[in-house]
Amino acid sequence: MSQPLSPHDSVAASRQELADIIQRHCPSEGVYETAVDSLLVARSDSPSEGRMPTLYRPALCVIAQGSKDVRLGSELYRYDELNLLVVSVTLPVSGQVTEASPDKPYLALRLDIDPGELTRLIAEAGLVGSTPRPAARGLYLQRLDTCVLDALLRLMRLLDSPRDIAMLAPLYIREILYRLLRGPQGHLLHDLAMTDSQTHRVTRAIEWLNRNFDKALRIEDLAREVNLSPSTLHHRFKEVTALSPLQYQKQLRLQEARRLMLSEGLEVAVAGHRVGYESPSQFSREYSRLFGAPPLRDLASLRSALGAQALPA
């Protein structure tokens, strides 16, 4: 007669099943969309050679196998199969897979978070009256608990049962968001959705910068746009993103210029001008500082690495 699984064995078995599902839907290295609109899966068969700057949007990121370092400004976040990563606002970060091999690849998923769905869920669950807290980083690590893992596993199983996705995926996603909201750092997601919070106003400033990163930035104008004083905006913005608004804008510009050169074949000077740089030499200097090499050398390195791309989790 078989013995019942202990809680530890049960979690390990769930994580292994999660890894098996991801691997089935990632036939080779790369990032793959799934039949669930907000869900992506990723695989890497070897550690990253260096840090890959990318833009994280609000999402839940979970590693089923392997480990990864994520850097936000000067801060380093190390996470693996035991932790989940929650991004509550759009952030320019850099990531590096640190543990992966062909026999045991890095396997991860990313579930995008819809702030509108958060708002509806908060109202329906009666969580509107949460006590206001000071602004905090828009990215945090949390221990992967069994409730979130179970809901994620049920969502991932739908990839092998596509006819059930339309009916069941929204239910499972709502459960996952509810678990995060009720978690130890759920107030960060709560503040993202609440229109009267300072974090929500910082989020509006972030959204404005993402739409207008190629324009000249005056902190006074941005503060007026989101109904905060310039000093409060600067302080709260840095609390949430670890960057000043100008530093944030610079990273957006450089990442978009890199995309334009890599994906659309724009020349260096044209790409720099397109994202708002008037001085080609300043563009090259700041590009080298962020990506570790001048534009042409960096692009040659990226193109020589087959399938090089930023992993989403």
TrEMBL record:
Residue ranges of every copy of the HTH araC/xylS-type domain listed in the record: 203-301
Gene3D superfamilies, per the entry: Homeodomain-like (1.10.10.60)
A GO term, aspect molecular function: DNA-binding transcription factor activity
Origin: domain of life: Bacteria
GO annotation, biological process: positive regulation of metabolic process
Keywords: DNA-binding, Transcription, Transcription regulation
PROSITE patterns attached to this UniProt entry: HTH_ARAC_FAMILY_1, HTH_ARAC_FAMILY_2
Alphabetized InterPro entries for the sequence: Homeodomain-like_sf, HTH_AraC, HTH_AraC-typ_CS, Tscrpt_reg_HTH_AraC_N
Protein's name according to its UniProt entry: AraC-type DNA-binding protein
Organism: Pseudomonas panipatensis
